[in-house]
Design a protein that fits this description.
By secondary structure, the protein is mainly β. Helix content is 0%, strand content 49%. The strands form five sheets. Strands 1-2-3-4 form a four-stranded antiparallel beta sheet, with no helix packed on it.
């Protein structure tokens, strides 16, 4: 529903790009600034544009703002700069997820993959990850959906990258928007809705598929 309460008019600017809800039921929104709602009152943290927001395993809020990713912990912001090259202007944080140790894995649209561990930023430069749309961590693996390289399965502990693209698999396109691990399989959204299990793809957007069976 559209908000009409005059007390929050203007809080959201012209756009909301992502939402996250923590374990206390508190809402954070990123877009033309960062907005917080505790169930009663609305607050604006900043007017700076923010594109991505998420919650880690310790209930801290992470926000992607340009070439920084920022963590809100105990009402204090911590800032992690990913880009130290002033000549780069198109630095966009597109994804962030957390492993079992609460290490942050951060994907960017044009500049690859980073991790933030013990407050230290490390760029993962052993592989080229292309343009990252989104990523999800499951156990010791990171599943990366890309704009130009299909699905990537990165295993940090083994320094291993497994690729699923149009040249080596049945995936229907190299643009994958989302990848969702589900136990022993992975759901993918790209040009089609796909399920990857044991190296084989099943497609659910064809009119003859079980998705459309009544």
């Amino acid at each position: 529903n559209r908000f009409t309460d005059s007390s929050i008019q203007g809080y959201f600017g012209s756009r909301i790009l992502s939402l996250a809800v923590n374990t206390n039921g508190e809402l954070y929104a990123a877009g033309d600034g960062v907005i917080y709602f505790n169930g009663i009152d609305w607050y604006r943290y900043t007017n700076q544009g923010a594109g991505y927001i998420t919650i880690d395993h310790e209930n801290n809020t992470w926000v992607g703002c340009g070439d920084y990713i920022c963590k809100l912990k105990n009402n204090t912001w911590q800032y992690y700069q990913l880009n130290h090259n002033p000549g780069i202007s198109n630095f966009i944080i597109s994804a962030c997820d957390f492993d079992s140790e609460n290490t942050a894995w951060v994907g960017t649209l044009y500049h690859g993959l980073f991790k933030i561990e013990n407050d230290t930023v490390v760029q993962i430069d052993e592989f080229s990850f292309g343009q990252i749309n989104s990523l999800k961590v499951q156990e010791d693996k990171i599943f990366i959906a890309t704009r130009d390289r299909g699905l990537l399965e990165y295993i940090p502990g083994e320094s291993k990258l497994i690729k699923y693209n149009t040249t080596n698999s049945d995936i229907t396109g190299n643009w994958v928007q989302y990848a969702y691990p589900d136990h022993d399989s992975i759901w993918l959204i790209g040009g089609d809705l796909m399920l990857l299990k044991d190296g084989d793809f099943t497609f659910y957007m064809d009119k003859d598929s079980t998705l459309f069976t009544t």
